[in-house]
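I am writing to request your help with a piece of structural work I have in hand. Here, with my thanks, is the record as I have it:
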Amino acid sequence: MVESDGRQFDLACVFVVLVDWFPYALFFLHIFLRETEAGQGPSRFSSPASPVGGVPPAGSHRRAVAAPSPSVVLRNATVAKDSHRARSAIDVLVVGLTVGGAGALIFSIGSIWFILRRKSKNASRVDGDIFDGEFQNGMGPRKFSFVQIAKMTRNFKAEKLGGGGFGAVYKGYLRDLDTHVAVKRISKASKQGLKEYASEVKIINRLRHKNLVKLIGWCHEKGELILVYEFMANGSLDSHLFKGKSLLSWDVRFKTVQGLASALFYLHEQGDHCVLHRDIKTSNVMLDSGFNAKLGDFGLARLVCHAKGSQTTDLAGTMGYMAPECVSSGKASKEADVYSFGVVALEIACGRRSVEPKFEEAQVSLVEWVWDSYGSERLLGAADPKLRMHFDVKQMECLLMVGLWCVHPDQNSRPSIRQVIQALDFEAPLPDLPSTMPTLMYGAPIGCGIQASEPCFSTDPTTIPRD
């Protein structure tokens, strides 16, 4: 509907331009015809040898001029009458076409007004459709106008807090609440469209937890998709771990993991529906002024019933944090979220990204490198060297083991987020993991007992590698 309206609007604009210039074209045509006729006049009505006005030129010899014959006078009168009729016809044609052009111009302006009005109504209807019934209690996010958003961010010239393929995040100031906010302006070139935008607003509106970033408001106006979040003074977790913003102490790191686990437990177990986040990573973990962790960015999140706990959908997420079964089947599940959590836990403990292409081959993958360290009985060697051994050894070992448990290639061997919390609180024993990381194979060997389209796991290092 919107594309159709756009085409109608373009055609109407072209029509208006043509109609607008049409009277001018007729005017110049009229002048041209007049001038042409005026130029032909002398050849019709007088002879080139005839003096102007019948007065002979000075110094000319007087000679008798023969009176024109009656036939010549009659012919000249007839020609003059025909010329007058032609000019009258041209005048009538020009007036008629001018009046018609003016009418067409008025009609075109009315059509454009109607199309713009319908587009405005459609935009309002879209707002009503995607958020129908979500904010009737008045307790959820509020709707902002684009003018209000522009004032918050000084017309988007305020400090830029971050950016990426989705767009940019600006620091804003909300005067009526006397607080700073984070304004996420989604790029029109972003893959995050209206569906993801609406999903983020609707899902996060249902959520209330101290370890989740609070959504304050939203704006869908003039083709803009904008979200307004609470301001997180210490930015994203990845800016501290990988970009040198600050060196997080071990206490802050362990508290961050516990806070993230608490948020995930709330999403998976404590709401009316199970919320699958699908994009847990360090850049989506924010730190407030007290370095308390809060999970944000619910653009890819999905609601599923607790009994089902999974959903087959399009491939979505960030490589390096996605579970193997998500890559192969597109299946989103609690276990896939736990896998992503495990990768983040290992990043926090080791102080490096999940994938480091510049490292030597054995250390490119964080998961494989840490598992190899565990199998070689040098697990603490994977701890972040920037900490200079200033950490609780028992907590570090626990975090590394829990991380490996969560990233087990077999989703059925991963813990639930409840078990993760119990392990981090030392209320449950740590798992007994194989010394060699199980390898995911695409194709079942004889005796595996599953279909060839399903993954098979083995601890044999000589198994078929992934393509």
Notes: The mean pLDDT is 77. Residues 142-230 form a domain with the Phosphorylase Kinase; domain 1 fold (CATH 3.30.200.20). The radius of gyration is 39 Å. The longest helix spans residues 70-130.
